[in-house]
Amino acid sequence: MKHIPFQLELVPDLPNIVGNKDYKDFRKLLERIEEVLIFSGIEDLAVQSFIESHLRIGDNEEGFISDKGQISSQKERIKILVVKTLRCNLAR
């Protein structure tokens, strides 16, 4: 009868270490800022304000966002950039 060699793991799984106290505190702070931003609606207000201040109506060259023919992917990209900008400025 032949034996099949099979080695068991010698080292048990180590517990996950999330991080030190400073990291945990900073993470909690960022999570709280995110909650405030989501529930307050300030992100939507910032996007709306940005679009209104940069809107180009018809042939008027005041802004760079045209009200004609703008597709939803462009609007979504603008929204993402404005939200990222707002969050980065708050994180500083």
Automatic annotation (TrEMBL):
Protein name: Uncharacterized protein
Native organism: marine metagenome
Species classification: unclassified sequences, metagenomes, ecological metagenomes
